[in-house]
Design brief:
The chain has 171 residues and is of the alpha+beta class. The longest helix is centred in the last third of the chain and has 19 residues. 39% of the residues lie in helices and 9% in strands. It has one domain.
């Protein structure tokens, strides 16, 4: 005598379709840095260690030929080379010492830049940064900003339009 249990019909799975929701980025600040500057790279490497893979800071090398201002707060290469910039998740670009204040706060080290918010010290630090930024390329043994910009555009034009010219053997 075999006993069989009655078959239970399982309901069809419900298909749910959802509209993609705009997601806010998981990062809190995007740092635009010069990957060809040895001092900048020292700072970036330090900050990357402090971020420890959490993704709070996105690091964008403006010296990369593929750097696109439209994807990074519309900060063009020349502007980004002249002063440090960062982009916030809402697309707002910030620059100068404010970049360091925000990044260090994001990484839990805001106390380092707290004094730069004070009425007397803040403007002094801001001015010192401007002097540093004006001399950064010279102090790191690099060509001036105009030369770097012209060389970059020539290099990119060469890659994208095939207008490369090799120097003559006599040069």
């Amino acid at each position: 005598m075999s006993m069989s249990s009655p078959k239970t019909e399982l309901p069809e799975p419900i298909k749910v379709t959802t509209q993609p929701q705009p997601s806010s980025p998981s990062w809190q600040i995007e740092l635009l840095y010069d990957g060809e500057c040895p001092l900048c790279m020292r700072e970036v490497n330090f900050l990357k260690k402090r971020d420890a893979g959490r993704g709070l800071v996105v690091f964008v090398d403006i010296a990369d030929d593929n750097y696109s201002p439209k994807e990074h707060g519309d900060v063009d290469f020349e502007t980004a080379m002249g002063r440090i910039h960062a982009v916030l998740p809402d697309g707002t670009a910030i620059k100068n010492v404010e970049v360091f204040r925000r990044i260090y706060e994001t990484l839990g080290m805001g106390w380092i830049y707290t004094a730069t918010k004070w009425p007397i010290i803040g403007p002094i630090v801001d001015r010192l940064y401007e002097i540093w930024a004006d001399w950064r390329l010279t102090l790191t043994g690099r060509p001036d900003l105009e030369t770097i910009v012209v060389d970059r555009y020539k290099r990119i034009e060469c890659k994208t339009q095939g207008r490369c010219q090799l120097p003559d053997a006599d040069d």
